[in-house]
Amino acid sequence: MEWTVTLSRKAKKSIPLLPQNIRKTLAFLIKEIELTGPVKGTWPNYSKLGKTRHHCHLKKGNPTYVAVWEVIDKEIRLVEMQYAGTHEKAPY
Question: What pTM was computed for the model?
């Protein structure tokens, strides 16, 4: 059974402002979360930020782009992408 990924209001506003290659990487991450779940140990600098929050780097270097997502409901398999943008403004 696949996971459902939703975007927070903050993520919806920030994604169009990202460079095209970062948007493509984020789309790939979202698709991978939908297919295999929220734990992404193979992604660069992936880590859990608590019981339900996760983050990984979309691009290393300067600037570094990150994504932050949270498992909202394990039973119905719902994940919310909360942030995608530069490392400096990440909510963790």
Answer: 0.91
